[in-house]
Amino acid sequence: MTIGLSTTEPELKHQFEVLESERSYLEHRWEDYSGWTLPFLFPHEEYYTTSEMQHDFHSLGAQALNHLANKITSTLFPPSRPFFRIQLTPEQEEQITGEGFTTGDVEVFTSRAEQEAMRNADKIALRSTMILAMKNLIGLGNALVYFPEQENRDSQVYNLRDWVIKRDMSGKMVQIVTRDRKSVETLPPEHRTFMMGEGFKNDQKVDLYTGITITDTGGYFVKQELEDKSVTTTGIYPAKDLPWVPLAWNLVRGQDYGNGLVEEYAGDFHVISSLAEANLNLAAIASDIKILVNPMGQTDVDALNNSASGTYVHGLPTDVAYLQLEKLNELQFSSSMLDTYERRISSAFLLNTQVTRDAERVTAEEIRMNVNELEGSLGGVYSKLGEELQQPIARKLLRLVNVELAALEPRILTGVESLSRNTEHEQILMFINDLAMMANIPEPMIPYIKYDDMAKVLASNRGLEFTKFVKDTEEVEAEQADAQEAQQEQVMGEAIADGIGQQIGVQGI
Asked: Which of 348, 381, 401 is where one domain is finished?
């Protein structure tokens, strides 16, 4: 049973218009926020493709938004390592090891699957999509990402004018309605024939509405409608595999839409816009050069204008004067105030720090510094994005590798944990170094040291699973017994071979 949508009657166009009207008070704010930063995020309604979008009097907002979006994307999806790990259940690990595979074999298999999944990220244009989604989140506070089920189709980010959402009190998505504008000629044959039968022209634009609504079982029912004419049922998706992923920067309990970082600094952006406009006007006036001439003076203006440089002209210097702008002090004060507010915005959007290098090999320390900086500056939004965004993306990438891999549970690595595999490698090397330092134990203390227990403590303090790669005493003793037995068999074999050789030698003599 669905909540809020009919399975047979066309209604999505009406619901879209109702939900859009309910949020009209927000749209005026979004127009301001996008106007201060990137106007294409939420253009004014009167904007048409043949007109230029109105930009603000400064470019700091665009620079700040582009910078922070790229920085968050680079940290969430580092180009040099996977952002998730495949987590096997204890039952799965027991089954695999029961088939003769070691823990190391499992690690190699999961690592290869993760690397292959990350290579598939290019197939769905993941990085460019995520940068655009981050721009929407930071600027407007909301983003809707769509991951098509068909292979080799790029992921998409809906413009906020083309989707509406309804949430429950806890912030869980209850209903989404999206709008896609298409030409009739681009529709599937059966829908094209139907719409032309309804009076639409072949080159006419029509709206395709998609409704996603929660069911009483926790899944999501999806249907599509062309205008208010036809209904197509798509099916029911489990919540974790829903192709539409709605995101919010900061979501207040009971609200349908989130608040972005630009909204938190709306006052500063407004002041910067006003001061930049005032400075521009003052600069325009100051650059307009006017020369005043005394009409009763003795200077011949025509002779002065026509004379060559360095020539002599009859006149008095007091007859000619430049018109001075008596607002230079105000211009300097306005410029200093503008610098103050620009520094505040730069600090809020991390413009004062160095961006992570866009390279194949970025050091773990650089990633760790960015993670800590994002966590501290953005109030935990980075970890929130890890929970809401990375999980469905990880499943999508694993499904592109192998459908069966989608059944595995990817463990999202957020915060400093995003370096876990790299960190584990470093800790193993440091643990080996700890063991090497044990050779420096004073000789009188050697008989009193429990080396096995000390190695376990050192590994535990390094956060390593000791039994994962270090043999216990029983395994070592068993291997030593096998080695001694093999050595004895080799000695016996050599002795028998020597005896046979001696007999052959005696017989030959």
From this structure: 348
For the chain, the domain total comes to 2
| SS3 at position 167 | strand
Q: Which long-range contacts (CB under 8 A, 24 or more apart) does 457-466 make?
A: 458/431, 458/434, 459/431, 462/427, 462/428, 462/430, 462/431, 462/434, 463/424, 463/427, 464/424, 464/427, 464/428, 464/431
Q: Is residue 461 part of a domain?
A: yes
Full domain range(s) for residue 478: 420-491
- Per-residue pLDDT reduced to its tens digit, 87-144: 777 777 777 777 777 766 777 777 788 888 888 787 788 889 999 999 999 999 999 9
Query: Which residues contact residue 199 at a Cβ distance below 8 angstroms, ignoring those fewer than 6 apart?
Result: none
Closest CA to 82 of 124, 111, 125, 122: 111
- The b/e string for 53-71 (b: 16+ C-beta within 10 A; e otherwise) is eeebebebbbebbbbbbbb
Decide if 444 is inside a domain: yes
pLDDT in tens, 274-333: 999 888 888 888 888 888 888 888 888 888 888 898 888 888 888 888 877 777 787 888
Query: What is the maximal distance between C-alpha atoms in the chain?
Result: 146
Residue 419 has pLDDT above 50, yes or no: no
Q: Is residue 314 part of a domain?
A: yes
Closest residue by Cα to residue 467 from 214, 102, 174: 102
Crossing angle of the two packed helices 60-76 and 328-348, in degrees rounded to 10 = 10
What tokens were used for 490?
């080799």
Domain boundary among 329, 348, 367: 348
User: Which residues, other chains included, contact 186 with Cβ-Cβ below 8 Å and sequence gap of 6+?
Assistant: none
224 part of a folded domain = no
**pLDDT above 90: percentage of residues in the chain:** 27
Amino acid symbol at 181: R
Nearest to 195 by CA among 143, 230, 154, 163: 230
